[in-house]
Every structure is written in structure tokens, then in C-alpha cells.
């Protein structure tokens, strides 16, 4: 028999976040998420980072590519500075608590909540939504399970995930209310930095995304220095020089995006970048941005390539991380089963 249900009122600070290995990671994933995961690792709070491969298959993934992308994403995490000893790094499918809690949350969350998610609407726009997978529709429920399986309190994400985190809060509140417990924390999204929403290099109104059909729309963490420079040189802009004040970027999404990328990569504010480049033409600004991007990304790419030479070592790191993750999630899940009223009598 499991222990009686505990209903703690306060929760130890714990950070959880994830990235889908649904393609090669982009500069958007790096600035909006990965770079900040590394910063959080140094703040003395427990950090758990997950490659959410079960989310990735909500749209079709070639199995061999998915395996390769998962290892490559793990290499990107480590190359960017995630230390698998200080943080827990693993892939979602190796810890079954995610899927199990995801099912329970499917029974807590409401269809209407899912239907209102802008990511669902964006991903089905212009398509026959009826033909999309049920997993894609229920994606935010599994995401809530990813976070709450660890009773994580803080989740660093890019701006695009804000609505999903609000839904995670709603699921936690409804679960606590329905079962009369204070079991799950109401998580805090951490959306900070100069590039919480990196936009496509081809269209400043669209998010940079690993699944965008145009490779020119994004910078991949595997791109060579030459490719990065060429993509920035060809990035869509307007004919005006950079303004001398941030307000001047208001109706110039492409210019604003490049300024924000520069700011995030340099660690300065967008206001300082505008101050330094006031009046500059893109012919001057783009090469400066390309140099900066190459200087910041090339060491990561080089280290990723080195790590990818030894896939068995990457698998070992992910496996070890999964064991540590499972040790946290399994007891939490057992308490959830108790709360929900499942008989748990299997000998251990
Ligand atoms: N363009 C972006 N700017 C800032 N942050 C971003 N993130 C993604 N794109 C940007 C952040 O990266 C983390 C992991 O995201 P994900 O891979 O799980 O899913 P996503 O947000 O749907 O990313 P993609 O690249 O657009 O993937 P696909 O194309 O497969 O859907 C999240 O914290 C996200 O905010």
C-alpha cells in the first residue's frame, strides 16, 4: 500500500522545461529557451530539462530522424552549457510518469480549453483540423504533466508557450479543486530576456520555427559560420536606416527582430543596440550581427559536432538522467493515483 495522501501547501522551488526534438534546434530555441536554461542552472535551484520526444510525434516524425534529432538536441544542451551532473537531462519517453499523468490530465482538462489554444489554431490553420492527430490537440495536457510530474514551480519558456503555461495553471487549479487537495503548485512562467520571441528571417511577423518549410527563415544550431552569415545577409529588411530610438522600430518587424537578436546575443538591451547603431544602414548592421552570431554560436556548433561523434555516450547521459527524473516523478505519481482513487496493490 502507498502512503496516505499528503497535501503540502508550499512547494520547494524547482525548474522544469523542455524542447521538442522535432527538427534541428534554432536560434529561437537557443535565445528563448536553451541559453536561459543554462543561466538558471547557476541560480542554485534544482533544474530538470527534458527532450520531449512524445510531443514531437504529435506530428509525423521519421523514426530514424527522430532518434538522430533527439541525440542532436541533447548534444546542443550540453554544448550550450547544461551540465548533466548539475541538471537532470533526459528524454521524455524514458520516464513513463509523463504519459501516465498526461492521461489523468486529459480527464481533468476540458475540450474547450484545448480548442482555444493559439498553437493548435496556428498549426491547423488552412488545414483540415479533423485530420490532425488527437495528440496534437491534447498537447498542452501532456505539457502540464511534464511540468507537474515534478511539481515544478518555475518554467523558463519563450513567449509562444505563455498560453500553454496558463493552461497548466488551470489544470493544476482544477485538479486541486476537484479532489479537494493542494497537491499541485500553480506554476510561474519565466519569460525574460531581449529575445523571448525570435521571428523568422523571411517574415518578421512569424515566429522562427524549426518546422518552417524554409531553411532560410531560421538559423540552425548546426549551421556553419558561412551559412549563418549568408542567412543574415539575406534576411528580409526594409530600406530605412536604423532609428535612434526604440519607438522607431514599432512598425518595422524585421528590423526589430534583428535588433532584438543582436541584443540577446550581446547581452545588452535593445535600447543600447539602437543607441550604438543609430542611423546605420543594414549594410553595416547585418555584418556586425553576423560576426556576433558566429562568435556566439560557432563554439556551440563545434562542441555539438564533437559530442555527436559518440552517440552511445549521449544515450548513456539521457538514460542516467531518466533514472534521476523517474526517482522524483514516480512517488509524486503514486500520490496522484491515491488522490484519484486508483487501487495500488501491486507488490513492489
Ligand atoms: N522563435 C522563438 N523565439 C523564442 N523562443 C522560442 N522557442 C521556440 N521558438 C522560439 C522556445 O523554445 C522552447 C522549446 O520549444 P519547442 O521546440 O518545444 O516548441 P515550439 O515552441 O513549437 O518550437 P518550434 O521551433 O516552433 O518547434 P516546431 O516547429 O516543431 O513547432 C520553448 O520554450 C519555446 O517557447
Task: Provide an overview of this structure.
By secondary structure, the chain is mainly alpha-helical. The protein has two domains: 14-193 and 310-340, Rossmann fold (3-Layer(aba) Sandwich); 215-306, Tyrosyl-Transfer RNA Synthetase (Orthogonal Bundle). 52% of the residues lie in helices and 6% in strands. It contains 13 helices and five strands. Helix 1 (27-41) links the parallel strand 1 and strand 2 (46-51). The longest helix is centred in the last third of the chain and has 30 residues, at 311-340. It is globular, with a radius of gyration of 21 Å. The structure holds adenosine-5'-tetraphosphate. Adenosine-5'-tetraphosphate is lined by residues 19-20, 22-23, 26, 28-29, 31-33, 157-158, 160-161, 196-198, 207-211. The site of adenosine-5'-tetraphosphate has 22 residues, from helix 1.
End-to-end gap: 10 Å
Question: Can you count the beta strands?
Answer: 5
Poorly predicted sequence stretches spanning 5 or more consecutive residues:
1-6
Radius of gyration: 21 Å
Helix content: 40-55%
CATH homologous superfamily of the largest domain - what is it? HUPs
Counting structural domains, the number is 2
Q: Mean of residue pLDDT?
A: 95
Spatial strand order of the main sheet: 1-2-3
Describe the main β-sheet briefly: 3 strands, parallel
Q: Which CATH class of the largest domain applies here? A: Alpha Beta
Relative strand content: 5-15%
| Global morphology | globular
The CATH topology of the largest domain turns out to be: Rossmann fold
Number of helices: 13
